[in-house]
Amino acid sequence: MISANDLSPSELAALLAFHAEAGVEWLLEDEPVDRLAEFEAMKAKRADVRAAPQVRQPGPSETQSGRVQPATPGKARDALPAAPVSVPPTVAIPDEQAMSEARFAAESARSLAELRTAMEAFTGCNLKNSARNLVFADGNAASGIMIVGPMPYAEDDRDGQPFAGKHGDMLERMLFGIGLSRSDVLVANVVPWRPPGNRVPSGREADICRPFIERQIGLAEPRHLLLLGNFTARFFFGTNETIHQTRGQWRELSAGGYLVPALATLHPQDLITAPVNKRFAWQDLLAFKARITG
Fold first, then answer.
1. Alpha carbon 84 to chain centroid distance?
2. Shortest CA distance to 207 belongs to which of 94, 98, 109?
3. If DSSP codes are grouped into helix, strand and coil, which group holds residue 20?
4. Other CB atoms closer than 10 Å to residue 164's CB: what's the count?
5. What is the Cα–Cα distance from 135 to 257, expressed in whole angstroms?
6. 3 state SS of 51
7. Residue 31: which region, alpha, beta or left (left: phi > 0; alpha: psi -120 to 50)?
8. Separation CA 236–CA 85 (nearest Å)
9. Is 185 exposed, middle or buried (0-12, 13-18, 19+ CB in 10 A)?
10. Residue 258 dihedral angles phi and psi, to the nearest 5°
11. How far from the centroid of its chain's Cα atoms is residue 113's Cα?
């Protein structure tokens, strides 16, 4: 086994980058720790405490002989223990309230910059507690072309930008094939905070974040929308169809009252894990190019 001490700085940086891309978030300790044994020891200790006889301590008005003496008011007050300070428990915001606050924050924003500020201050989504950064829309908002993915991944969360790392590289190649570049489009995600472990956002999490992505679309006013991946297509089209059933079909969707034609295709991750999907994505991209060029 190679020790980290045997690696050069560049080799160590490459190894850490590899772990980050693989989704590793925690490193093992130098010595193994038996967590099960720790848990059993903790339970045994608690059982011993419960089983130990409780020795009654003499009160402030009792003497060592056991006789009760009249308590002196001043001394009694001094002997009384301080009242414990009650700390109110952390109360989660109910889903309905969180969605209402998200709608209010989104509708109050009059520009993408104001919307970003409002989202940075928003605390109604639990995903924000585990994410490093808010991943907001990035790119050319005046281009008329917007691309929306499902959620940030590890590299997006680290850099604070949508479609960073290998997904960004694949997206660049997809756009290059139809004569576009990253600087020609606006890129965003349905959910702006990375779910732990890159899991799929829950329905409630998506509902809370819906006003934010719809407002990003409404403020950018794209003329054409490209949706990437199964989750994104289902989110906007409101169906349970798979991406292979919805891809390549132009549909008109409403994002907070803003109507825009949208086409769904496969996510860059789908092309990385299954290169055979590239031919399907290429067909969709050609259809997208034909539409945007008129």
1. 37
2. 98
3. helix
4. 20
5. 24
6. helix
7. beta
8. 49
9. buried
10. -95, 120
11. 20
**Which residues touch 241 (CB under 8 Å, ≥6 apart)?**
233, 234
DSSP class of 277: G
Cα–Cα distance, 201 to 30 (Å, whole number): 34
Tell me how far apart the 2 most distant CA atoms of the chain are, in Å. Answer: 102
Q: Are 190 and 202 in contact (CB under 8 A)?
A: no
Query: What is the CATH class of 95-292?
Result: alpha beta
Residue 147: name the closest of 212, 222, 210, 202 by CA.
222
Q: What is the pLDDT of residues 16-69, one digit of tens each?
A: 666 565 555 555 555 666 666 766 777 677 777 666 665 555 555 554 544 545
Pair of tokens at residue 207: 């509902």
User: In the sheet where 250-255 sits, what is the strand order?
Assistant: 138-139, 186-189, 145-149, 224-228, 258-265, 250-255
| CA 212 vs CA 52, 74, 231: distances in Å | 56, 61, 16
Rounded CA-CA distance 153/65 in Å is 71
Please state the separation of Cα 196 from the chain's center in Å: 6
- Could you tell me if 222 and 145 are in contact, meaning their C-beta atoms sit under 8 angstroms apart? yes
Structure tokens at 293: 């060029």
Instruction: Identify the weakest region by mean pLDDT among 70-74, 99-103, 237-241.
Output: 70-74
Tell me the per-residue pLDDT of 129-167, one tens digit each, with 9 for 90 and over: 999 999 999 999 999 999 999 999 999 999 999 999 999
Residue 74 amino acid letter: G
Over the stretch 223-282, which tens digit does the pLDDT of each residue have? Answer: 999 999 999 999 999 999 999 999 999 999 999 889 999 999 999 999 999 999 999 999
SS3 state of residue 254? strand
Q: Count of residues for the chain?
A: 294
